[in-house]
Amino acid sequence: MSDTARRVFVAIVIAYLVSLLLILLGSYVMPRPEARGVLRTLFGLLLFPSLILFPLSALLRRGRLALPLAPAVIVWMVVFGMLLLPRSPNAPQGAARFTILTFNVQTATENLDSLAALIRAADADIVALQELSAPAAAFLGEALADLYPEQALHPQEVPNWGQGILTRFPLLANEFWRNEQIEVAQGHMWAQIEIAGQAVTVFSTHPVPPLSFEKGLTLQQHSREIAILLERAAQHDTPQLLVGDFNMTELMDEYQRVTERYVDTFRQAGSGGLGFTFPAGQRLPLPPVIRIDYIFHTDEFQGLNAYPLARSSESDHLPFWAELAFSPEDG
User: Fold this and answer.
1) Could you read off the pLDDT of 163-181 as tens digits, one per residue?
2) d(Cα 153, Cα 126) in Å, to the nearest integer?
């Protein structure tokens, strides 16, 4: 490597380390907790280059650069490395087993046959759909009726608000709601489904993103939507599944609030890498770099396997699939 290339490399590493440190400090000193969560998410994303810069520094015998990069690699291993460890939980004896798919279809109105084929191939017992447009609801409801005779579809005048649940199990009740006190709110729903003779409540949620090109910063609104979801869930005394596009990462306070009461199925039983679901490369030319689509469950369930599917049709979210065991007698 030429001297010029070495100097450029050193400058890149120094700029990277300074940026990493400033974002980390900001994640502690920002007065608004929602903003701190976004900065922690950005910090987590910026840990990934350390996996390249650290070995390069060592190979180039730049010990003074490798040394400060080492903590970033260690933090990455703590935050993300556990996701790569093999998990092979066993189903409790006598437990009912079922599968569930959650998928933000991103207001799809075209290539609906491809979308239906993807859902059919996943062959989940329960399917939760976010951003369900009226054309998609009509098409999928008919195209998948043989597989899912029980349907609760709630397309809305604003397609981003739409929600739907398809299932093979008996559908006992369902409700759509929108948090109208929050101007930029989207849509949510719950459905009560009978599994192994027991009523189970499935919440499909889609809180407003904490930031977006269209809506700008909506940090407090996102946090409030998560709080309302948890308030509503607490009103149900059944075993519960919380699924959907949560628009949050594991490094945000909202994730901690959810996991105080629910188990992250991917953390418990995930396979297939880091579980990243967004972006799926349709609208943004990037591979998935964050995990914002989740399946959470109460203690009556045991995660057996969980992973994002490899393709997404027209959506920028990968569908997320899980197999769970259900032991209602443990509740």
Assistant:
1) 999 999 999 999 999 999 9
2) 13
